[in-house]
Amino acid sequence: MKKRHIGALLCTAMIAAVLAGCSGSGKQEGAAGSDGKQTQAAATEAATAAPEKAGGDVTIKVFSNLPDRTSGQGLIEQMLFDQYRKENPNVKIEIEALDDESYKTKFKAYASGSDMPDLVSAWGQPSFLDEVIDAGLLAELNPSDYKDYGFINGALDGFSKNGKLYGLARNTDVMSFYYNKALFEQNGVTVPKTYDELLAAVEKFKAAGLIPVSMDGSDKWPLSIYITSLFQQFDGATASADMQASIKDGDYTNEAWPKVLDLYKKTVDAGMFQTGFETTDYATSMNLFTNGQSAMYYMGSWEMSMATNENIPEDIRKNIGVFSMPSVTGGKGTITDITAWNGGGHAVTANSPVKEEAIKLLNYMYLPENWSKLCWENGVCMSAQDFSKYLTGKETSLQLEFVDMVNNSTNISGTTFNDRGTNAFKTACEDSFVEFAIGKLTPDDVFNKLAAAMK
Amino acid sequence: MHNLYSNKKVIFSLMAPGLIVFVTAILAPIILSTYYGFTNFSGIGASSFIGLENYKTLIHDSVFWTALRNSLLLSIGFICIQHPLAMLTAVKLDKLQGKTEGLFRCIFFIPNVISVAVIAYLWKFIYNPSFGLITKVLRALGYTGQLNPLGAGNAIWAVLLVLIWHGFGWGMLIYYTGVKNIDPVMYEAAAIDGASGSKTFFYITLPLMKPVIQVNVTMAVISALKQMETVYLLTAGGPGNETQFMASYLYKQAFQSYKYGYGNAISVAFIAICLVSTVALNRLFAERGE
To answer: How far is residue A174's CA from residue A301's CA, in Å, rounded to a whole number?
Structure first.
């Protein structure tokens, strides 16, 4: 009798465990199906060249932060490498690709050894690049090579230091609210022009049982970009210079700062983001939007390929629109001030044994008819070059909305706030905005932490 | 044979592999870490010697103390929740006999077989406040509020639950082996004397399991201190730094903030704490054993 009791108990425990397992794994598939830019598992691939010709073989080692080689920017990069190998049969390209965080860690490990890959992904932002350039890790490029490449004004500034050029920018990234047009219509919400309208929309969506905006809070940087956008709206045209000054002097007395934090806290408390946003990762937050559970999704233009992603249900992918941070009451900015920057790109390492060949490959990739054209035609992203001549007329409406947003912009943020200082500043900044959001810090704590991080 | 073993060269050659591994993979990194702990090295480029500065920062670093507290909580959780449960399950399992015994032994061990990454994601989804299992079940039962187990205030308990659940199988398996090694004659004798189930447990099973308990407790404390992967994948130390453990905090400082020197200072403190607690536990058990 006793034995039977034990058996029953153990059975219940087992069923619970199995149920937990099923539910978990089911959801997991969903996450893996979507291509979260930053959360993909590491993928390593060693590609060998097509028919080898004797003599003069060159192996270029590439280290990339685009682990998904079958869609998005990773696919474009892969296509260009394949194309280059076909045209130059003596060149072998070995690719190692990891997602952002692992990439940066391993980059560091490479940097302290002597075996750096030849062509690497890099970010034209002080938080990444300053230390790398100071350590003399990157090869200098010849700016005159790129005269005809059509890089948009200022696109290469991030990769330049003391008048020297160290890398090429891949994209123009624009941070924005993606929204589900159908859900907006069903709930009688129009695209908000002011922040008050946005907050009013939040109430409507909450009443309808929807998540107003899904937010990737686990990676933390989207929240810092949100802060950057709010700062732009409050501070107006001088936002970029003012942010830089605040970081440099550790001085947060600019009257816009308290207003930014106040509104940000109000936004969080109003329930704009999903419950638990602070621990929701990239893929999950995106899934909330692509499953129709949230009406909006705060993310960058690099996810514009959602509109063509077959993994996303058709009624959702065909209904995605985009708008930028609305203007705030008492702010000096306008809705056409956008948060955009030229961040990620490629560089060649200084000690590479095949430096010349690697630069050749880099230059080939960035020929306007290569990176720029392919990215646009595949609806992957907007390059940092002028791609207007590659407009095909077959663009998704989402792509065109982004182009309009950039073309009509009155002011551009440049590098976002979190990436404007040292790496220690980046961590402190991203951490404190999350901790502030969940009520663990006061505005003064935040400012003190930001100032201390730059000391 | 005796001659062979007293030949110093032979002794050395037999010990060499172990020694080499110890020196290159453990001792040398510790020495290097100690050195870097005194510098402001960022991981790339030049660095300068800054003496005890990193350690001074460490003492005033509230996150470090949070991490230590979390390790302590986890050790307590292991010792007071996981292990008693594991031992009771092992004893009950032993009584089941036959096929059911093997089946349940296997089932309880399953979480240990699954990769940590899968475990972390599985629980992340169970805990998810928008579509997680817990939320769905509560909704079905009519609960309308919002529940976020991994949110501020709750996160550490949610993480402890996962860790205790995940490590349960190991603990149980070791206790189970311990129980199996107890001579059944003892139980028979006790039964003849009319001892009840709980009496047999307290007067036979428990005392005879002592060596096993000692091993298990020491391992639990060490694994609580070393905790990294599950927490890193589940919450990455967040929200804020609430669920930071020493290893995850060290990783964050060294590889995300690029404060390599400071990260090494943490690791030196970390090693010291691990050593001290292991020695202390061994002493404690040795004294008891006498």
So the answer is: 5
- Distance, CA of A356 to CA of A94 (rounded, Å): 16
Q: What is the pLDDT of residues A239-295, one digit of tens each?
A: 999 999 999 999 999 999 999 999 999 999 999 999 889 888 888 899 999 999 999
Kindly tell me if the per-residue pLDDT of A220 is higher than 80: yes
Q: Judge whether A7 is closer than 8 Å to chain B, CB to CB.
A: yes
Residue B81, exposed/middle/buried by CB under 10 A (0-12, 13-18, 19+)?
middle
Of chain B residues 94-123, which have a CB less than 8 A from chain A?
95-96, 100, 104, 107, 110-111, 118, 121-123
User: ipTM of this complex > 0.85?
Assistant: no
CA nearest to B255 within chain A = A105
**Cβ–Cβ contact B252 with A under 8 A:** yes
Q: How far is B118 from chain A (nearest CA, A)?
A: 8
Report the DSSP beta bridge partners of residue B284. none
Chain B contact for A211 (CB, 8 A cutoff): yes
Query: DSSP character for B215?
Result: H
Yes or no: say if A279 and B239 are a contact pair by the CB < 8 Å rule: yes
What is the set of domains in chain B, with CATH numbers?
Answer: 61-289 (1.10.3720.10)
What is the DSSP code (8-state) at residue B24? Answer: I
pTM (2 d.p.): 0.82
- Measured distance CA(A353)–CA(A155) in Å, rounded: 28
pLDDT tens digits, residue range B166-175?
989 888 999 9
Q: Chain A contacts of B124, Cβ < 8 Å?
A: 279, 281, 284
CB within 8 Å of chain B, chain A residues 310-349 = none
* A118, A62 contact by CB (below 8 A): yes
Tokens representing A33 are 């199906």
Alpha-carbon distances, residue B220 vs B119, B226, B247 (angstroms): 19, 10, 16
